[in-house]
Design goal:
alpha+beta; AttH-like fold; Dna Ligase, domain 1; D-amino Acid Aminotransferase, Chain A, domain 1; 6 domains; eight-stranded antiparallel barrel; eight-stranded antiparallel beta barrel; 35% helix; globular; membrane; ATP_grasp_subdomain_1; Phosphoenolpyruvate synthase; transmembrane
Length: 1294
């Protein structure tokens, strides 16, 4: 035996180093095969170690890149690309699949597969179904697509406007105009590639291969990027859809940088699944040309809002469609977070779409829609099959025209239009740069008139040598920014006159005159056109059309010099300054001037290569008139209109023409410009049909040359076509009202969701600004994530959701996250606390179980322990300390961006304060749960009785230490002092804005109490989460109005019961022991309610500090010219403010102004209390319900019976209707309503629970109060005499 033992021992010693050498170090590769062999286990061990090292390397690379991985386009070699892929599907059969890819030298490729559930299916025209092109610069503007990163890794705007082939039409090639606009919003943080691929799954793929040397390590691909899930929300419109077709598509998005798949992959299958409860899976299996024969990986985003890598996939690539014979069904098992999911996918093979790249290293891919089962849940799926295709040619597109970028601008004062220096945008301005690029085309189809550009260096030299001019411009800028007082319009006039009155510097004059001498005048020379060419003018984003001056028909050198001075001056006309100011551009900027030979045009006009109204790229629109085109551009004359049709492959024909009156014609003669009125022009066409087609062909040529739709000014003279100007059409990508209304919507992927306005609308009663959504409410949602879900994803909103700029609560994720097998009493009590009435039923409970799964039994105990631990802490004290420590320390001496970063640096502290409020709220509800469970005395109930609810309300009425109840006490105190001083009548007549000063001068004791109140509660206000709303400290006139209201009423003394009396009056407990335990609980419940209100006050104080910081920042941004008005800051997201400070962006300013205009509409939207599926606002929430059947019923939260006049008020703006002694019927209340409670005899609200604001303050005043009464503001009207029963929750007319 010893012999065999030692023999085996020494053989092993020799064998292990040999195997290690073969697997790790040897370099000669022979062949590969698939399958597990007898060396699989050691191979797996080695592979996993290498995979983890490889993943760590890329993790560090991605970490170093940060946001640049998303925001920058980098392509390092001919084999590398930067690619994006979006695939969205819904349960109705709609889907959108598109890929965009950018390679070296700006070579780009796009494909699109759009399926709509009415059967229409769209792809790019042509046999291949893809569009290859060259870009003027690296950007995601490809083949009609425009991808705009609104927030890295979180939000992308996707627009498309172009011609697509409808392949559902089999009889002929049906080409249609299709436009779609979507906002893609992520569900959370991306999965980064390769670091987030499951390392064991990756290692298993490597270990299955045949290793003959260490080159197996080279099989790990040189790609990095990310994949993640989200939803595309938007619309499709076009020839077949005159009305917007609204879609919400759960989506998988991926972005990869590195070696392109076409160089690496032999075959690939990608599967996207979204089931009816929101489970999403993205599975990829690849076979590499020189690597793994089967590499599977994938990711999951589950219905419980948690994300995981897939840890096992049993999909076998070589068994599925190896020869493009697609199966009817694919079945695979995957493991996610230790749970097995059985996926059965039924392919709709009659709906296959194919796209082909037949170049060298080409490919073909097929997309197939499908239905699926995920375990037993139904869902939608989409499958892509990718195959390599070896073509012969390499696609080399024509390069696009683009401006020249230089490190330092040349110093010359003039440059010829045909010189290469004219291509430098920062030197020659928008118009000059465009003409220079046009001249470089050297086309026989058109002529560019001779001319030159007076550069920005000449303009700067003029300023540098004129101190008075510089000073007047500086003063104008200071007036515009509000740094000094002054009349802006008068200052603009002063600057423009200074330019015109100051002679052009001699050096600049000399350069201009010498340049003029280089051009032969010819027999038909009619003078020069002198046009302004400002920096930022005629850009892709902003045309600045008509803002600066043009002078035609200049004959002499002096006239040209005067025109140049006038062009410079026009940069500071009131309209031009206002235009830049309103778009957040520098008021003080540079200008070049174009000097160009005039064309003695027979006719002239404008061409839009896309229809300017419908944006239809198949229609080109020409407007024309006799003579100069100035009458067309200025709108002085009714021109002829020609509409051309152009096909996707460049064929053009005239489809319509409209004869204009053309009664005014502008001609240029040797003596100057002459306007002629010719009525007979109405009978003649200004251009022929052939000329219209000729213009259209040139338009197509320029579109191809510049890479975008164009606006072109042209002229005909002696049958020759002259081009005078060309710029991009800037209106193609304008934000629609739909996009602006839904851009902030939380992405949803399932109809099996429940959302509510309860609890939320008490503190956020109206639609909120985007700044509030991305600051205060983001901090609040982060707090909910940390507390409710015990994790935190900064790229998502999971507790509070946004819809059309209104805030809602996700009921399942926030309230029913802990799931029992059957409806549990705990959930019923939560309903009572939040809604004021039962909500959870068997249907919702079943939905919750399917989304969240049953909670482990230990989870309930863990939650209990967590809340109990918090109950023993001084959370309110900790909250106050954090708020006291918040220090924004903004300074006017610091750059605006530094102050912005200081604000952002406080978000974590504010979020922690909100987290404390979440804890105290949970503690308060926890004690209510304990109390009701005790009162049940061991009984199992499925519904709480009115007695239970009334008893809890009675117990809570003993809670006296509530900070929010101090508000009406203070105001009553101030009113009492005024009454005692006999100033009631006088003070009631004082203007609220003068009230504080009047008290200071006439009733100082009341004034001192007012100041004490403002110091303690001045951070509170109506709509406390909204940073735009004024706090009471900022605007004490709000408080003065409340004091004046208090002077009209006398507070009824609250009937105070002792704890013993309250316990004795309880109806539901039957045992003395129960009453004894409840008595012990009373103090705990009171303390919890007080702590809840105190942490809420501290949270609002933190929000108010943030509010004041934004106020400061808005003013500073105005002073530095970033914003035209300080209030516009509320209509920018927090991130957008940062983007704007890093780089001025007129598009963002325009967007903010549009939001500001739409904001009143969003504020007025009303949503039902409970919504299932995608939320929808009520059609007309103000329509009364005239038929009252029986009695309305809600939850009693403060006992008592009262009969009185009803006052129905939906918002505090209507508070003037309130009379002393009324029963207030309203939607909900917050702190802003508190001062009016002394006037009331009772209150009922549609929203609210046991610890809602209305309930807390009503108990403080002893007012009968009922909450959760649905549609009460519709059933009753002001003036009805009603009875409110705070004992059983009933309300009815008398």
């Amino acid at each position: 035996m010893d012999v065999f033992y030692y023999t085996g021992y020494y053989v092993s010693l020799l064998f292990i180093p040999f195997v290690t050498y073969i697997l790790v170090f040897r370099k000669n590769r022979v062949s590969l095969y698939s399958g597990r062999d007898w060396l699989y286990i050691p191979k797996f061990y080695f592979a996993k170690r290498e995979v983890k090292t490889y993943q760590e390397v890329y993790k560090n690379k991605i970490k170093k890149l940060g946001g640049k991985l998303e925001t920058e386009i980098n392509v390092s070699s001919t084999e590398c690309t930067d690619s994006q892929h979006f695939y969205g599907i819904d349960e109705l059969g709609n889907s959108l699949n598109f890929k965009l890819e950018i390679g070296v030298d700006h070579i780009a490729e796009a494909s699109i597969h759009l399926r709509l559930n009415d059967g229409n299916t769209y792809v790019f025209p042509g046999a291949k179904g893809i569009n290859q092109t060259n870009l003027p610069k690296n950007s995601w503007k490809i083949a009609g697509f425009n991808l705009e990163t609104l927030e890295p890794y979180r939000k992308i705007r996707i627009t498309f406007n172009g011609l697509l082939k409808n392949i559902s039409c089999v009889d002929y090639d049906k080409i249609e105009h299709v436009q779609f606009n979507f906002i893609f919003t992520s569900f959370g943080t991306p999965f980064y590639i390769p670091q987030d691929i499951d390392s064991s799954l990756y290692a298993a793929a490597l270990a299955k291969e045949y290793w003959r040397d260490s080159s197996w390590k080279d099989d790990m691909i040189e790609q990095m990027g990310f994949e993640y899930f989200g939803a595309m929300k938007g619309f499709v419109k076009g020839d077949s859809y005159t009305e917007e077709l609204i879609l919400n598509l759960p989506t998988s998005r991926s972005r990869y940088k590195g070696i392109a798949d076409r160089f690496l992959v032999r075959r690939m299958i990608r599967i996207l699944i979204c089931d009816e409860y929101g489970n999403m899976f993205n599975i990829t299996t690849k076979s590499f040309k020189n690597g793994c024969s089967e590499f599977n990986y994938g990711f999951a985003y589950l219905s419980n809002e948690k994300r995981y890598p897939i840890t096992d996939i049993d999909l076998k690539l070589h068994h599925i469609a190896e020869n493009k014979l697609f199966p009817d069904c694919i079945k695979t098992n995957i493991i996610v977070n230790d749970k097995t999911y059985v996926l059965i996918i039924y392919l709709h093979k009659n709906k296959i779409i194919k796209s082909v790249n037949d170049n060298k290293y080409g490919y073909e891919y097929y997309s197939i829609p499908a239905e699926c089962l995920v375990n037993t849940f139904k869902g939608a799926a989409a499958i892509e099959f990718y195959y390599e295709k070896q073509g012969k040619e390499i696609y080399i597109p024509t390069k696009k025209l683009k401006e020249k970028v230089v490190k330092e601008l040349p110093l010359n004062f003039v440059t010829d239009i045909q010189d290469e220096e004219s291509h430098i945008l920062d030197l020659t301005g928008g118009k000059g740069n465009s003409l220079g690029l046009l001249s470089s085309l050297n086309s026989d189809s058109f002529i560019i008139p001779d001319g030159f550009i007076i550069t920005v260096q000449a303009y700067r030299h003029q300023l540098a040598n004129n101190g008075n001019l510089r000073n007047s411009i500086s003063r104008l800028n200071d007036i515009c920014c509000g740094k000094i007082e002054g009349n802006l319009e008068e200052s603009c006039k002063e600057v423009t006159m200074s330019f015109k009155n100051v002679q052009i510097d001699s050096k600049v004059q000399e350069n201009i005159i010498n340049q003029l001498k280089k051009y032969a005048e010819g027999d038909e020379f009619l003078g020069w056109a002198v046009r302004s060419s400002a920096i930022g003018e005629d850009s892709d984003e902003l045309s600045a059309a008509g803002q600066n001056d043009t002078f035609l028909g200049c004959q002499t050198e002096n006239e040209i010099l005067e025109a140049v001075s006038a062009c410079w001056a026009s940069l500071y006309t009131y309209q031009s300054v206002q235009y830049r100011w309103q778009h957040g551009l520098h008021v003080v900027t540079d200008m070049a001037v174009v000097v160009q030979k005039m064309v003695k045009s027979d006719s002239a006009g404008v061409l839009f290569t896309n229809h300017p109204s419908t944006l239809n790229p198949s229609q080109m629109v020409i407007t024309s008139n006799f003579g100069l085109g100035e009458t067309v551009v200025s709108g002085d004359s009714d021109p002829d209109t020609f509409i051309l049709n152009r096909t996707w492959d460049g064929k053009i024909c005239l489809i319509d023409k409209i004869l204009g009156s053309k009664n005014k014609v502008l001609k240029v003669t040797s003596s100057g410009l002459e306007q002629i009125i010719k009525e007979q022009n109405a009978q003649n066409w200004s251009i022929s049909e052939n000329q219209a087609v000729q213009i259209g062909k040139v338009g197509l040529f320029l579109e191809e040359a510049f890479g975008n739709p164009r606006y072109i000014e042209w002229a005909f003279y002696k049958e020759k076509l002259y081009l005078l100007q060309s710029r991009a059409i800037t209106t193609l990508n304008v934000w629609t009202d739909f996009e602006l209304s839904h851009e902030m919507d939380t992405p949803l992927r399932t109809k099996n969701g429940i959302y509510t306005t309860a609890n939320v609308k008490e503190v956020i009663p109206k639609g909120v600004t985007v700044l509030s959504q991305t600051s205060t409410l983001t901090c609040l949602d982060w707090a909910l994530q940390k507390f409710v879900q015990q994790n935190f994803d900064p790229l998502s909103l999971k507790g509070m959701i946004t819809h059309q700029h209104n805030i809602l609560l996700d009921v399942i994720m926030s309230l029913y996250k802990t799931v029992h097998a059957k409806i549990h009493i705990t959930s019923l009590i939560v309903d009572l606390a939040v809604f004021g009435h039962p909500v959870l039923n068997e249907s919702i409970h079943e939905m919750t179980k399917n989304r969240m799964g049953l909670s482990p039994s230990l989870a309930h105990g863990t939650e209990l322990i967590r809340v109990m631990k918090n109950a023993w802490k001084n959370i309110a004290g900790e909250s106050k300390k954090i708020v006291d420590s918040l220090n924004f320390d903004l300074s006017e001496n610091d750059p605006v961006l530094v102050n912005y970063n200081k604000i952002e640096g406080n978000f974590e502290g504010i979020s922690e304060v909100a987290h404390f409020h979440s804890k105290t709220t949970a503690i308060s509800v926890f004690y209510q749960i304990i109390a009701i469970n005790i009162m049940l005395e061991g009984k199992t109930v499925l519904e709480l009785t009115t007695e239970h609810i009334s008893d809890i309300a009675s117990i809570l009425s003993s809670c006296n230490d509530v900070i929010s109840a101090e508000v009406p006490k203070y105001l009553e105190g101030i009113a009492k002092i005024i009454k005692e001083a006999e100033f009631t009548e006088i003070f009631s007549q004082i203007e609220p804005s003068e009230g504080a000063n009047w008290l200071n001068n006439n009733c100082h004791k009341a004034y001192e109490l007012l100041i004490e109140f403002l110091n303690k509660h001045g951070h509170r206000n109506l709509g406390e989460m909204e940073v735009m709303e004024e706090s009471w400290r900022e605007n004490p006139s709000i408080i003065i109005t409340m004091i004046q209201a208090n002077l009209k009423s006398e507070r009824k003394k609250k009937e105070t019961l002792s704890v013993d009396e309250i316990i004795k009056n309880l109806k539901s407990p039957k045992k003395n022991l129960t009453r004894t335990i409840i008595k012990f609980m009373v103090k705990k419940m009171g303390t919890a309610v007080g702590a809840r209100e105190l942490t809420k006050s501290e949270m609002i104080r933190a929000f108010d500090k943030l509010r004041q910081a934004y106020r400061f920042l808005g003013k500073q941004m105005v002073r530095n010219g970033y914003l035209p008005s300080k209030d516009l800051i509320y209509h920018l997201t927090h991130k957008e403010i940062g983007y704007l400070l890093e780089k001025r962006n007129p598009g963002l300013i325009t967007k903010a102004i549009r939001r500001q205009r739409l904001y009143p509409v969003w504020q007025k939207l009303q949503f039902p209390e409970i919504m299932e599926g995608i939320p929808k606002p009520e059609e007309d929430s103000s329509t009364p319900i005239t038929s009252l059947v029986g009695i309305c019923k809600g939850s009693p939260v403060c006992t008592g019976i009262v009969k009185a006049r009803a006052c129905v008020i939906r918002s505090l703006d209507e508070i003037h209707q309130l009379q002393t002694g009324d029963i207030l019927l309203t939607y909900s209340t917050d702190i802003g309503w508190s001062p009016y409670f002394p006037m009331l005899s009772g209150i009922a609200t549609e929203l609210g629970g046991l610890v809602s604001h209305g309930a807390v303050v009503a108990r403080e005043y002893g007012l009968p109060c009922v909450v959760g009464v649905r549609n009460i503001t519709k059933y009753f009207k002001t003036g009805d005499i009603i009875q409110l029963n705070g004992n059983n929750g009933e309300i009815g007319k008398i």
